[in-house]
Structure prediction request, 229 residues.
Amino acid sequence: NAGVTQTPKFQVLKTGQSMTLQCAQDMNHEYMSWYRQDPGMGLRLIHYSVGAGITDQGEVPNGYNVSRSTTEDFPLRLLSAAPSQTSVYFCASSYMAGGSEQYFGPGTRLTVT
Amino acid sequence: AQSVTQLGSHVSVSEGALVLLRCNYSSSVPPYLFWYVQYPNQGLQLLLKYTSAATLVKGINGFEAEFKKSETSFHLTKPSAHMSDAAEYFCAVTRPGLGGSEKLVFGKGTKLTVNP
Prediction:
């Protein structure tokens, strides 16, 4: 099993550009989520999904869109990149929410200039 | 709403010394609690979790944590630090529930340095 994979590993965008961060898991997990990690802030939940076709907002959803058309994939779209979105983004999945372990991808380091 | 407070953004210990990383939580219902570790330039890895079974939880790499309801704490300990323990550690909380409405809430992290 590859676990949770994320692409790209690094990305530099100019302000106003859009892009999609890819996330895929091969563990047949229903629950997937996106977090951003900023120094001194821990991880903050952006969006999450409890199954194909179902998504919801987390703590910091503004400026991001998600969709979940399959169990395996959960892409994160930046609509119009801003310098405040410079961060490290982690995708995670788990069998179910709550007490299950969340498995994290290796992260995408995004810089917006 | 749930929250987690990690006391000390940086902790430094000598190799072989006790490691104690502090975590206090706030939750209106009995929580599930987790400790994750992040090595440089990597994703997060689960160390251990508490899900209302035994209050003393043992994890990987010799770490353990004790759930203390009266103190709303879930401190992480290891009797003897190793150089390879140098990393950032995150405490996280969520609540049991139905329908997948739970969300994992993370603390801000504690960076552990181990000195030779």
